[in-house]
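Form P-L/3: holo structure prediction, ligand pyridoxal-5'-phosphate.
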Amino acid sequence: MKAGLKVCGMRDLMNIQAVTALHPAYIGFIFYPGSARYIGSVDPELLSSIPATIKTTGVFVNETLEEVKRLIALYELKAVQLHGAESPEYCAALQPYTEVIKAFGVNYSFDFESLIAYEKVTSYFLFDTLTVNHGGSGKRFDWSLLKQYRLNQPYFLSGGIGPDDVNELASIDDKRLHFIDVNSRFEISPGLKDIELLSTFFTLWNAAPAAKNYNDMNYFVNEKGYYGDFGGAYIPEMLYPNVEELRQHYLEIINAPEFQQEFRALLKDYVGRPSPLYLAKRLSEKYNANIFLKREDLNHTGAHKINNTIGQILLAEKLGKKRIIAETGAGQHGVATATVCALRGLECVVYMGEIDIQRQAPNVARMKMLGAKVVSAVSGSKTLKDATNEAMRDWINNPIDTHYIIGSVVGPHPYPDMVALFQSVISEETKKQLLEQTGNDQPDYVLACVGGGSNAMGMFYHFVNDKDVKLIAVEAAGKGVHSGHSAATTALGKEGVLHGSRSILMQTDDGQVIEPYSISAGLDYPGIGPQHAHLFKTTRAEYVSVSDEESLDAGLLLTQLEGIIPAIESAHALAYLEKMEFTGKENVVVCLSGRGDKDMETYMKHFGF
Ligand SMILES: *Cc1c(COP(=O)(O)O)cnc(C)c1O
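OUTPUT (holo model):
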């Protein structure tokens, strides 16, 4: 199916009749007095003479509800198109009377998540160029921004569409694009359409082939909490109320303007964002490509994890929670959680395996200094898995006042989506920075290391629908993929359920989780998040692995070429550059997820400093 056409902004009787004869799907009339195409008070007869198969549409900007309702009745408008700051409640109030199309001006900073509140109270969205005059500028916006639009609601495309755009429009591979709005670029003067030009456009449009392959692949979560075959919420019944409360409220809370304001302000002033995108010159020379490092290592507390804990502590506050629990393996997520609890004055309990407590004394001390209570998990292997079980038990016992902060894109729905949303600031910034630095917001390659997968999801998020951008996820091969000491999940794993969601994990034939191994604590995890399982299975992203040895060497190389000591996790992503081949032209972004201070002892032992 190809998109239908809408023509908007006529005033003159003969002109209206000529446009009607072309039989567009919609004809729009502008009832906004501030517009050069304002229709004034027309004779209702004129509009009622338009055949019922064409939807007559009233275009409004911040008009009172009574006036809109009066005009709907007077002109028997089949649809209204709202171009101002009309609220979801306003749209809902009009829905019983007519079809509601809500228009949005789109630019680089447009927040597509803000549309969620409008999805149920409108029939369509209309995406237009952002201007102070509420549309009709004749200017086009960057259509590639629509790749960030991930709801199912169909939409109109508007804004500066001209006579030469037929082929480009016909190639847009999106079945949610239902209508195309043509307006100011087909005019002799404001409000007077050039019928010959319009008629040619209609003929060409009807003759153009529809895009062949509609993009059916959706890499984002669906209403049921799945990414393709993966995701969902596999939880004990006792945990259901807690997870359900979160599922029902997380998007509404996160998308509220006050939340976004608070979140963004803390990311800026407390975390130190935006983190730089640094063109590493000497590293680039060595690999014969432009290597850009996304410097998450410069964040407060030294890694990307703080983006997520800031988001979740604000969410917990909005849910009225007073107490925070978390599990931690090496202590990195525990420290990031204890940090935000100190920041907001909330009680904090971190579960940690007894063996990990002994191995990670400095992080345990940090958590305690930050005011957190560190509880030792003494069952099973006394490591992360057991800490997770203890945290779950705590949450079941304290469903009312406690929020559980999970540290990666794992766990039952909505955690993977929620954590990915908070971490998506990484790719959001990267796109803007790339555009500034290279004139193109799409690099050739994006690389990130994967433990559970949160820094990688944040780094991939705004690139997943950019088909030309190759995504590479680097797992930890440990002492070798088949050495029996590895955490290369996609190479060794099978589909199954881990930590509340269906994904890919390392398991024996009878479903026992295999103990993973990596020299870097952050990658020492037997699974990957469900989004990654989906990206892997659909081959949208490539999953590779590098060994302990290769990573340590890459860490040393970056240190001596650029003066940056990376976390050993991040060094895994860097190590894969060694295995790639470049021609000198490629732009490559590597997520430097964290700094290496915490790993000095390991580096010292290995290199003998
Ligand atoms: C925790 C950690 C990781 C791994 O976690 P993901 O959820 O896969 O991002 C990677 N790098 C650093 C520096 C970490 O602290």
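COMMENT: The two ends are 66 Å apart (CA to CA).
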